[in-house]
Amino acid sequence: MTIDEYADWAATIAKVEEHPSNERLSYLGLGLAGEAGEVAEHIKKLLRDDWLDKAGLVEELGDVVYYWACLCAATGQRPSALLDASAAKIRRRISEAASR
């Protein structure tokens, strides 16, 4: 399954409409923030306990991807295009930093 196919699937599960309400966008954004917090919690426990629950971390990363993909769909963006744009932005930053 490609990331774009996943986003299309996730949008059907989350009932994302072509023009979602502010409430729906807020729900998805808060879901993303909450799941990112769960990822941070695993990292915190790694620092505290010197042990990583890798399976738990991976599960939470999957939840982050779900909400991110739903937000992509809700804003009419193809995830693959966002990944391409992100990679280009990072390459520019690296190039700018190297030229200083």
Which class do the helix and strand fractions yield?
mainly alpha
Number of strands: 0
* Unreliable stretches: none
Following the backbone from N to C, one meets helices and strands in this order, namely HHHH
Main sheet specs: none
Protein name: Nucleoside triphosphate pyrophosphohydrolase family protein
Name a few traits of the molecule.
4 helices, 0% strand, mainly alpha, 100 residues, Nucleoside triphosphate pyrophosphohydrolase family protein
What does this structure look like?
There is one protein chain. This protein is mostly helical and 100 residues long. 80% of the residues lie in helices and 0% in strands. The chain has helices spanning 3-13, 22-49, 54-74, 79-98. Helix 2 (22-49) packs antiparallel against helix 3.
Give me the secondary-structure topology.
Blueprint: H1 3-13, H2 22-49, H3 54-74, H4 79-98
Helix pairs in contact: 1-3, 2-3
In short:
This is Nucleoside triphosphate pyrophosphohydrolase family protein. By secondary structure, this protein is mainly α.
